[in-house]
Amino acid sequence: MSTVNTPMQPAMTEAITDRMSTFDHEQVVFCQDKATGLKSIIAIHDTTLGPAVGGTRMWAYASEADALTDVLRLSRGMTYKSALAGLNIGGGKAVIIGDARTQKNEALLRRFGKFVDTLGGQYITAEDVGMSTQDMEYIKMSTDHVVGLPPYMDGGGDPSPVTAYGVYMGMKAAIKHQTGSESLAGKKVVVQGVGHVGEYLVAHLVKENAEVFIADIYEDRIKAVVKEYGVKAIDAKEVYSHPMDIYSPCALGATVNDDTLSQLTCSIICGAANNQLANESIHGKAVMDKGILYAPDYLVNAGGIINCYWEIIGYSQEAALSQAEKIYTTMQNALVKSASEKIPTYLAANLMAEERIAAIANINKKF
Ligand code: NAD
Fold it and tell me: What is the pTM of this model?
């Protein structure tokens, strides 16, 4: 049998614990298994609010150091996202080092499930890049600490409708803050990426008579969405320079950067993609200086983790959607804090998450 908590060279241990202390991670666990080829890291960032929940990413990282960097960054992000969404769960994430197209199979996933199980529920896994609902079914064969299962296994299924609804709520709060009206009717919205979340978002926007423009790198996606909703397609290269009121990134991260900021004419950025700011501190301030209202991505795209949360406590899509509706109020609160303290919106959101965690940590200490 393979090793869990692989012993490390003393020098490496020191370097890793140093890195863990940067953002105060609680636990980082490594696993390798020769028989299945599994190489995996689970990072638990913070369990003040509850067990750490976050997806597993399978990616062909260039090095183990890169995989560690990613899992530390992503797990911390989950702590903030869940805290801000008002959920009673902490932040964690797992990575499997390898190519999901060629190295993923049932045995590897079931072995990974055993790895998750060794943490006794302190970490609950779910889908992320390179993983599917089918993969969660295999993991479930080895552990109960997995969500993102299909409805026939009492799971929440595809979280995208809930994610899209949360983004839509965030967008309405943003326009209300700017114009005094929460109506999106007549507003020009560019949705970049019409995959799972993007398409559901387009449906909400069209229903409200927004003027929607879509871009995608796949012609079949563009054709399907244009046909279904009667929206206009634009070239993927013209996304940033296209005249618009709202830019909604629903494809990739890091699309708000020096290059795109010089082209964007919108007054609001609000979309589902994770890590939209190429550099949080630089571009978070740059958007503010440019007079653009940036809806922090992890605040408005929390629908996915909300869906997972309801799967843990007993799934109901109605309940998950109701909770996602609260993103409207959370967005309003972040905008008020940002304006009153004259700080970028991402920072206001970070502070709100930290304040909630600190307050609950205080209760935990006392009782
Ligand atoms: P998806 O893969 O279903 O859709 C992404 C779409 O973007 C695809 O159609 C793809 O062709 C398109 N795309 C890729 N590169 C592009 C480019 N350069 N220009 C235009 N289009 C491009 O993914 P999804 O589940 O819809 O998620 C979208 C984003 O939201 C991702 O960044 C994801 O991490 C994030 N997110 C998703 C959820 C969820 O519930 N699915 C939750 C939180 C965050």
Answer: 0.93
